[in-house]
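Worked example 4.2. Below are the chains of a multi-component assembly; read each line carefully before continuing.
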Amino acid sequence: MTETQKVLVPRPTALEFFDGPVTDASLRRYLEGIPGVDAVGLEQRAAGLGTRSIKTTSKKRALDTIISLIDLTTLEGADTPGKVRSLVAKAITPDASDQSTPRVAAVCVYGDMVPYAVEALGVHHARGTDSGIQVAAVATAFPSGRASLAVKLSDTADAVDAGADEIDMVIDRGAFLSGRYGQVFDEIVAVKEACRRSDGSYAHLKVILETGELNTYDNIRRASWLAIVAGGDFIKTSTGKVAPAATLPVTLLMLEVVRDWHRLTGEKIGVKPAGGIRTSKDAIKYLVTVAETVGEDWLQPDLFRFGASSLLNDVLLQRQKMTTGHYSGADYVTID
Amino acid sequence: MSRLAVPKTYKLYIGGKFPRSESGRTYEVVTTNGAFLANAAKASRKDARDAVVAARSAVPGWANATAYNRGQVLYRIAELLEGRRAQFIDEIVQSEGVSTSAATQQVDEAIDRWVWYAGWADKYVQVTGNANPVSGPYFNLSVPEPTGVVAIVAPQNSSLVGFVSVVAPALVAGNTVVVLASERLPLSAITLSEVLATSDVPGGVVNILTGSAAEVAPWLASHADVNALDLTGAGALNWVDLEIAAAETLKRVLRPEGGTDPAAPSLDRITALTETKTVWHTKSLI
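Applying the procedure described above to all two chains together yields the following structure tokens:
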């Protein structure tokens, strides 16, 4: 019973939503008091947003925006320093045949690959600033999250020490689905603290909900609130290791939570759909959804990202088609 | 009692499926007298793009199938063509306005050519490949390999023979094809697509587009993911421009052929769509 008595420390702006101290019980009362999701309405709205026609002039801008929002990702067991270096080379110069191609927002790698990514980026590394390419690391026993808290925290601190600007953590889905919201909350808070650098600044924290394992829209909405209240800077749909990964309705739902949070507190939380977004056409649907739900302000790397690996190549092919006037092929972009 | 006719609206054949044209357009296929025969899909550039994507993804499977297996699969198509003889003959009589015996002759010729090309699948490498003499203790072997995705403009004045004569040789070596059927006489090509869909040919190996060759061919000619362009049936088009567009990405180009029998069967039609790879290997490891 000690756990339910423990007072949790949420992000300061979240305090006003709770009467008195935040405990496991009050958190559960709060999260389970959130109204349910109208699944049919949500899916219909997402499908509607997906049918928006994008004209050629807007498409060009959309493609460039997509590139600038990509977290170029390699999360394979077979990753090597060499593979990370070639990923970074691609992040810096996505299309060698067209120097006007924008750079991606970040490279996303496993924690042990962070030093190689930082080294390969060199002067292009953002190092906590807004310009340049960020290094994002997945941590907390990604992708399952099945490790003790101590391991998760040292995993996180290790990546931050190595120079990661952003940490992608996974929540404990088992605890969440069992209703132990306080535990999930605590972990997010602790990981957030582990993101603290020696100079007192924090690495950005993206909280992966793994929506494919949360089963219902109601759960996804609760998890989104939970992650925000606990202090996540970004909420991210999936690890990319579980199917289904990011879908448009799920992303729309998370964007709605972010919009509501912004209305309540004025704080802007980021959203990152990841996994399964492979074509420009899909990505443009996401841009439309963002613009229509939270507004065009969110279409910047600080507030919206695509977690993707093959998406970039497809966008480059579309870009080449628009520049040259004829269809391009996979021989004209790099092999990942 | 008279029966209400069921007018058919045919679709495209892309990636082993039968989609409507992305543009939603159709056109009427008519007899020589102008009587209605069927509606056919009028492909757009985006259908051509989709077809190339399907063809590209089918390349590894088809090119890496054993030559023997490819021969078997192609031969199986000839068997199925034989089973649809009556339908092919009927359609040729209606759309070309020729006699039944002339149509029968055309169908027989098409099936024979298909069988002839199927036989080449596990033989053409022996004939066109070579062991080259070199001044050292090495094997030096030149082997033809498929070039990849071949875009074809089928002969416009022939229903079935012309179509078969350009498609079959491209498939023998392991290429995949995107073929623009005759605009005026597409019915045989459409029926052939139904044959292909029920045969052992993997989806995407043959993709058949109906509609205006003049509209779609330029997109295929300039497409960077197409490796070769067969303009056999493009005589009436501005084919020089197509050849220039193809040169931008160094495609192989087969020029238009006129005459009564364009693309007559020949081993050259197979080798024209291959690339020669030469490998060196030591004769002994001692």
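Take a moment to check your reading of the output against the notes. Residues 100-120 of chain B form the longest helix (21 residues). Strands of chain B lie at 26-30, 36-41, 130-131, 138-146, 149-153, 176-180, 206-209, 228-230, 252-254, 274-282.
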